[in-house]
Amino acid sequence: MKVIQAKSPRANGASASGISSSRPNHSSPGMMSSSSGYYEGDLSLDEEALVSMPEATLVECFGNLAITKRPAHLRPPAAFCLPLVSMKNDSSSGHALKHLTLTSVFDALHPYVGIPYINRRDVCSAMNLYWLKNCLESEQLDLVHRFALEMQVHLSACFGCRVVLDIYGSSRNGFGTRLCDVDMSLSFYPAPPQWAHNSDRVMRAVAKALVDFPKAVDERYVNAKVPIVRFRSSDMDMEADISYKNDLALHNTQLLQQYCKWDPERLPTLGVWVKTWAKRSGIGDASKGSLSSYGWIVMLIHYLQQVEPLPVLPCLQEINHQKGENVYVQGYNVYYWKFVDASRSRHCRASVFDLFVGFLDYYSSYFDWGVNVVQMVSKRLEYKLDKWCKYSMCILDPFETDHNLAQGIDQQMFEYIRSCMEHSRKVFTNRHLRAEFLSGYSFDVSEFDSRAHDEMDMERASQFGEFLLHKCIMVKQAPNRQFRDRSMSQSTSNSSTSSTSAGF
């Protein structure tokens, strides 16, 4: 038996399987692709593209590609791991199965193929536009840096030594929005003064010093596991936190920023969308017993590393390197690959819609939370240690790998999170969702489609995005487990102890 392996043709006629496409071409991987496959390298179906393939190799190929043969964590619907197989009889002998064609027409076996193309396209437009309207712009980030520099000068004058404020968190890692908080890590250069021997003492002194800083209002000391000072900016609509020597958080920020460079067109969009979706659904606030935005970003990156057969993102901490390149901070190795190959992520041309729905399906249906842990350090599947079996969810910090980001989630909240993901997956895979949205604006859907062959205009797409987020909100409210507020206001009248300890 002779077996032929070929790539599927471009959308310029009938494909090998009899499927044709007339979709417009988009170069951005975040948008819907017009080609027949989700991966780059589609070739025309000519004699030069045909490659002979032994029968034994074919059998092994089917065994490896079959969904049922894959481990559970490699069987998310968004994996696009099956080929399209077309057959034709031999013209001379009439034998069936004389030729098999393996193509990359993954649309034919796509789990969401029942969703009309125009629906998927407009959802992608809504998600991309939401990021465009809410992302943290460079001008706003410049104002934040100027504000931090002015505060740095003020604190240096108050303490009589050089103070350095480094910004970390959402405002720097590529997943920031215009309303995100600003996190800053305080350190002394070249060395801390003698009185600054612990973070509690330093933060109380900072709270005292900010009373005299005119651009900071509502300052208060928060006695948490990591003591912080929280305040608001008087000239910008911004809330900020200051912590002491939060070096691991600085490296975490740089790592996430590096991942955004590998896929700048889809990852920031997906990250902002996932964070917003989680907060709207009542499962994105760690102070209420759910998961933090940082935890959702780690889950997203882990999923994008697991997409098969071509992952969207690599594991930057797993790439081979010399032991001498390891860097240790507080006993943890913070090394990661510093080079960027953005073309690698473009091999997988799945849209932000496909990846978001796959993300929901992966964690609600395929990921075994009772056995496995979510981690972005390596591609291999990690299992729970004995100390983590008591937690319903286990999400590991990429550097502080003995820290579970989901340790505050109880069983009731875990079940609610899974139900939210299942509900949202049903919302996004509802083929009538777009028609419902347009009908709400008194549009005749068929007439609208005939008049508007292009994507929705910006105003309509923006409204569609809000409509999608609203539909994801469940009728059942999230279990509210409010943690005790341990914040204490710091003022000149009750801060004499801090003033003395700081050496003022």
Automatic annotation (TrEMBL):
GO BP: RNA 3'-end processing
Domain Poly(A) RNA polymerase mitochondrial-like central palm, chain residue ranges per copy: 133-260
Pfam families named among the record's database cross-references: MTPAP-like_central (PF22600), PAP_assoc (PF03828)
Domain PAP-associated: 354-403
Keyword Metal-binding in record: yes
Gene3D superfamilies: 1.10.1410.10, Beta Polymerase, domain 2
Compositionally biased intervals (Low complexity): 13-34, 488-504
Keywords, in A-Z order: Magnesium, Metal-binding, Transferase
Range of residues in the leader sequence: none
An example Gene Ontology molecular-function term: poly(A) RNA polymerase activity
Cofactor(s) the protein needs: Mg(2+); Mn(2+)
InterPro entries hit by this protein: MTPAP-like_central, NT_sf, PAP_assoc
Residue span of region Disordered: 1-34, 482-504
Record-given protein name: PAP-associated domain-containing protein
Organism: Caenorhabditis japonica
Organism lineage string: Eukaryota, Metazoa, Ecdysozoa, Nematoda, Chromadorea
